[in-house]
Amino acid sequence: MDTTNSSTSPGNTDRFPEPGLVWLVGAGPGDPGLMTVKGMRCLAEADVVIYDFLANPVLLEKARPGCEILFAGKQAGRHSMNQDEISALIAEKALEGKRVCRLKGGDPFVFGRGGEEALHLRAKGVPFEVVPGVTSAVAVPAYAGIPVTHRGAAVSFRVITGHEAPGKPESDHNWDEIAATEGTLVFLMGVRNLPLICERLIAGGRRPETPAAIIERGTGPAQRTVLATLGDIVQRMEEAGIKPPAITVVGEVAALSRDLGWFEQRPLFGRRIVVTRARAQASAFAEALEEQGAEVIQAPTIHIESLADTPAMRAAVRNAGEADWCVFTSVSGVDAFAEALDLEGLDVRVLAGARIAAIGPPTAERLKRIGLRTDLVPERYAAEGLLDSFDALGGVSGQRFLLPCSAIARRHLADGLRERGGTVDEPPAYSTSQGDGLPDSLLEHLEAGEVDLVTFTSSSTVRNFVEALPEARRRDILDKVRGASIGPITSGTMRETGVTITVEAAKSTIPALVEAILSHFEQTSEVS
Ligand code: SAH
Q1: What is the distance between the alpha carbons of residues 135 and 51, in angstroms, rounded to a whole number?
Q2: Cα separation of 190 and 254, whole Å?
């Protein structure tokens, strides 16, 4: 076979003896979970990422630190490059010897102009690989409960660009032939031309009663599906105010979305929920809410800094062997303790003679990860609960406690242990400071009443959130905030600072808070 590889062509290779490599990667239709494992690996290894508007920007967080990230899509208000400029840029970066991840929405070879970019790279002698992506043409209907093929309803499907105005004399489409096609028609880029498309399909013999669905911003928190017929979808789309990006599905299968719709039916779909806890601790909580369909906005009001490398913490781990009990009141305390051990060249054997208490299951879980089993977790996940548990064990008189805690911890636990005759060493293990402030877009959503819940997982999150609201707008915004509290202590601070308590967890844990949020919205939707 005669393959011409222009990498041997003179010019480029003389100047750039070792061209890099380009991966043409499909980023999937929007839901970041729909990017392939291989695509992720390319993204993580790349020296340069060149991405489009439709690629979910959240994915860019997976690029390695120091990676050059360039936007090449078309978006209002930003300079947009034409296709030749984009192709030239990709080649240029690779010819500098870099590994380039060219990230495109959906699949790069489905209306993605990936073919043109690949041809340009071949002409320039730049090696490339294609990493297919999950195309919106199939995935967006799937998220609306529409299988593009279905026994008895459609044995084929056809993906068509709606970008070309039907009726244009130079149109590549043969509309009569498209109308006569058996099977499902999937139109991409067809919002503006939908009136003409429907007209041509009906003129070509498709029945006006044929089911048709249009799905806006599929696979993400703003997904909307309008189910209609070929005859009235234009009107229904206009009534709903559907805007691009959207996909139109024409054919019997579209009607299945009534029975098979699942994504928009999840319990928290369409709910916007703010998570205020520190970013380092927020992911499991945010994921649990997202799994139930919520749109989560992370607005960390707390920044946690380890104090492991301080004289007090380092001395505390050196002397840990003297303790009868080592009590951990937070995950951050465990992390700092482990870090201090490491700095001192020690390990968990220093606690061989001590018993271990944790304030709640997440802290116990983190202890397990560093190789420590917990002897005591109180029934009530608070300082008071720990004190009750120690009382139930027969008191603490004469016992020595090591209590790696927050620099601004409530003194309740240490004081209570001392009152009961214990000796307490409470080295500050971490400090907390206010987060980065609240983004403007969030303030606007809050002011407009477009946030369903703001979650608070400690008293500090409440105080810092309230303080982060600009003073002039604070009262107005607080009137609109509906708060979700992890437990009674946080709720107390909410009352003090004037934050409405709409939801309170039955037990002070994240799973219980998620549970309470779910049952709150279940009740709300029953009423409405
Ligand atoms: N290469 C892409 C398609 C690019 S063309 C792919 O394989 O998915 C851009 C068109 O794709 C949009 O106009 C719209 O019709 C469709 N599209 C892409 N993502 C979409 C989404 N999340 N929801 C609805 N339509 C989408």
Answers
A1: 16
A2: 16
State which amino acid sits at residue 474: R
Residues 181-235 have pLDDT tens digits of 889 999 999 999 999 999 999 999 999 999 999 999 999 999 999 999 999 999 9
pLDDT per residue as tens digits for the range 462-486: 999 999 999 999 999 999 999 999 9
CB 27 within 8 A of CB 59: yes
Taking the centre of ligand 1 as the mean of its atom positions, its distance from the CA of residue 6, in whole angstroms, is 33
Ligand 1: residue of 188, 219, 226 to mutate (most ligand atoms within 8 A of CB) is: 188
**Strands (DSSP E) along 163-294, which ranges?**
184-188, 211-216, 224-229, 246-250, 272-275
User: Residue 258 to residues 242, 262, 266: CA-CA distances in angstroms?
Assistant: 19, 9, 14
Give 108 Cα–ligand 1 centroid separation in angstroms: 11
Backbone angles phi, psi at 211, to 5 degrees: -60, 140
Which residues contact residue 418 at a Cβ distance below 8 angstroms, ignoring those fewer than 6 apart?
424
Distance CA 419, CA 416 (A): 5
Question: Which letter does DSSP use for residue 453 in this model?
Answer: E
**Which residue has a Cα nearest atom 2 of ligand 1?**
106
18: its two tokens: 């070792």
The dihedrals phi and psi of 409, each to the nearest 5 degrees, come to: -65, 150
Query: What's the CA gap between 104 and 73, in Å, rounded?
Result: 9
Instruction: Name beta bridge partners: 49.
Output: 69, 101
Global pTM value:
0.80
Task: Name all domains of the chain by residue range, CATH numbers in brackets.
Answer: 19-133 (3.40.1010.10), 138-264 (3.30.950.10), 272-301+435-527 (3.40.50.10090), 305-432 (3.40.50.10090)
